[in-house]
Automatic annotation (TrEMBL):
One of its GO terms (cellular component) is lysosome. Residues 1-22 form the signal peptide. Keywords: Disulfide bond, Signal. This is Egg-white cystatin. The gene is Cst7. InterPro entries: Cystatin-F (IPR042886), Cystatin_dom (IPR000010), Cystatin_sf (IPR046350). CDD domains: CY. One of its GO terms (molecular function) is cysteine-type endopeptidase inhibitor activity. Residues 30-141 form the Cystatin domain. Belongs to the cystatin family.
Length: 141
């Protein structure tokens, strides 16, 4: 399921409730509680990165929405669900926040003076059986 088709409800405190149905089962060699590297193209990683971006956009004063441009490093830890630890590069898009655009249709800012790139660290905790997403850490600079 692609992100834009996933039902998502978020409160202002960014405790999201999401329908995550097809989270891949954790690989059998992964021990609970032990963080392991995971491919940055993994669908779960990409979804988690988008949640981190939602959290950033909700808390930023920027006029424009930001969107992930590159996931540089990803780890996952099995702890009452899946906890993703992500290093993500995000860039300012041409979509204004007040338009509430779908990020999938937002293109990166083309105007030189408006371009901005931030490096972020997100911790995104997904508990598929409760359909909840919690983002305890979202640091961007």
């Amino acid at each position: 399921s692609s992100l834009h088709s996933m039902p998502l409800t978020c409160s202002i405190l960014m405790f999201c409730v999401v329908s995550v149905t097809n989270v891949p089962p954790p690989h059998s060699t992964i021990r609970p509680g032990f963080p392991v590297p995971v491919n940055t193209n993994n669908p779960g990683v990409r979804k988690a990165a988008r949640f981190g971006v939602y959290r950033y956009n909700n808390s930023s004063n920027d006029l424009f929405l930001f969107k992930e441009s590159q996931i540089t490093k990803a780890m996952v830890q099995i702890v009452r669900g899946l906890k993703y630890m992500l290093h993500v590069e995000i860039k300012r898009t041409m979509c204004e926040k007040r338009d509430h655009s779908s990020l999938d249709s937002c293109h990166f800012q083309r105007e030189k003076s408006l371009q901005r790139t931030l490096r972020c660290y997100f911790e995104v905790w997904i508990t598929p059986w409760t359909h909840k997403v919690h983002i305890p850490v979202a640091h961007c600079h």
